[in-house]
Every structure is written in C-alpha cells, then in structure tokens.
TrEMBL record:
Belongs to the UPP synthase family. Mg(2+) binds at D41, E229. This is Isoprenyl transferase. GO terms for cellular component: cytosol. Homodimer. Catalyzes the condensation of isopentenyl diphosphate (IPP) with allylic pyrophosphates generating different type of terpenoids. InterPro entries: UPP_synth-like, UPP_synth-like_CS, UPP_synth-like_sf. It comes from the Bacteria. One of its GO terms (molecular function) is ditrans,polycis-undecaprenyl-diphosphate synthase [(2E,6E)-farnesyl-diphosphate specific] activity. The lineage of its organism: Bacteria, Bacillati, Bacillota, Bacilli, Bacillales. Its EC number is 2.5.1.-. Binds 2 magnesium ions per subunit.
Length: 262
C-alpha cells in the first residue's frame, strides 16, 4: 500500500492542468458570476475507487483547488471564489483524517502562496477559528496577512464553517447591539443582517457548484444562496479541473435569472 501511494504521488505531482485557451475569450463575452461558491465533495470516494487512503483523495483535491482558483482568476471578472473546505459537521470524521485536513493550510502556504501573491489574490477564512488547532490558525493567519493588501479576486476558505452557526452568531450580535442602543429593532432588515455575516462586504454567490453527484447544500451559505444558480455534477472533486469549471460557467450564462419576477 505504501509503495502504491508513493507511485501515485509521483503522478499527482506531475499531473498537468487542464487548459483550453478557447474557453476564456468565449466566456468573457457573456455574463460572469461575481461570486462562485463550491462544495468540494468526493475526495474519499475518489481515493476508495483507487484503493488509496482517504488522505490521498484530499491531497489530490488540492490540485483541483489550484486549477479552479487559476481558472476563476483567469476569467478576470469573478470577484470572489469560496471553497467549502471543512464543515462544522466534519469533526465527526476519523481523527487521523481530521489531523491531515488541519495540516493542509500549512502545505498550501509552501506550495501556492507565492503564486497567489503574484496573481494579486486576497485569501480569507470564513468560519470559527476558536476550535481549530493553533498551527492551522497560524497558517491561515499567514495567508491572510501576506495577501491582505491584494486587490484582485478574493479566495475564501470556509473552514470549520456552518451556516446555522453563522446565522445564530449574527443574530446574537444584532440582539446585543439592539440592547446596547447601537440600533433599534426596526433597523434590522436584510441589508443590515448581511453585514453581520461572515461574508459581509462580499457579493452573494451567483453560482454554487457541488461535485460528486450529491444534490444538497449541506449547511453551506444557506442565507447567501437564496437566489444563487445551483450546478451539480457527478465528477468527483479531484477530477474537477478548468474544463469542468468553465462548463459550469457556460451553463450559468445560459440561464435566465428572474429573482421571482416573470
């Protein structure tokens, strides 16, 4: 098993990015989402199909993070990309898997920070940092600090994130501000509520992508996805690359967004 994993990792490290120069000018001629949110699903099943440990699937999934980030940035008009990295429910997974997932931000810094800075991408974390290991929080902090002055696309990692937790926390803060006299109860509307969410100052997602064939949103940005276009694919996350991302954008461009109107 160990040798098999080593052999596979060699292939992973040299795996080419999927690219098609015809996609970008074609898609840039149409409407592009300002914010794309992605539920990255299927790493474990991808590994199981190949007789590999689940961690190998997560490592392969990092390749797709890289490809999709580049693809979104290359389209130039996407303002934010949010990747659902670790949910508040994922703590139920085996401890060794959790430990590996918590180490990925440190690895990502080593492999990708320079490129993100060069691309002028700003990295942010959405989620509850209090429950994360200190080394994970430190790595995330280094990412945020190193890219804080960047003015290009915002890359959000939703880590230890759950939409219900986010909404409850926002509600508690609003209650506290009403009690303290900072605002009146009648001041609370959708616009104000948005400012108390972790996604404050970001456009709401125009497009939500979920891989692996599952058709649910799994406690991910339930408030923000109210009018998002949803795009589901059977492709497992480690197999999801530029071509698949561009296909999702193309499908988005074919849709008519009515927001409840005729």
């Amino acid at each position: 098993m160990i040798q098999r994993l080593k052999d596979w990792l060699v292939g992973y490290q040299s795996a080419p990015d999927k690219d098609d120069g015809e996609w970008i000018p074609h898609l840039q001629d149409g409407p592009l989402p300002k914010h794309v949110a992605v539920i990255m699903d299927g790493n474990g099943r991808w590994a199981k199909k190949r007789g590999l440990p689940r961690m190998a699937g997560h490592r392969a999934g990092m390749k797709s993070v890289r490809h999709v980030t580049r693809a979104a940035d290359d389209l130039e008009k996407i303002e934010a990309l949010t990747l659902y990295s670790f949910s508040t429910e994922n703590w139920k997974r085996p401890k060794d898997e959790i430990n590996y997932l918590m180490s990925l931000p440190e690895e990502f810094i080593r492999t990708d920070l320079d490129e993100l800075v060069e691309r002028n991408i700003q990295v942010r974390m959405l989620g509850n940092k209090e429950e994360l290991p200190s080394h994970t929080v430190d790595a995330i902090g280094k990412f945020e600090e190193a890219t804080a002055d960047n003015t290009g696309m915002v890359l959000n990692f939703a880590m230890n994130y759950g939409s219900r937790f986010e909404i409850i926390q926002a509600t508690r803060k609003i209650i506290d501000d009403v009690k303290s006299g900072k605002m009146n109860r009648d001041d609370v509307d959708e616009t104000l509520f948005n400012q108390y969410l972790l996604t404050a100052n970001l456009p709401e997602p125009d497009l939500m992508i979920r891989t692996s064939g599952e058709m649910r949103i799994s406690n991910f940005m339930t408030w923000q996805l109210a009018y998002s276009e949803l795009w589901f694919t059977d492709v497992l996350w480690p197999d999801f690359g530029r071509k698949e991302f561009f296909e999702a954008i193309q499908d988005f461009q074919r849709r008519s967004r009515r927001y409840g109107a005729v």
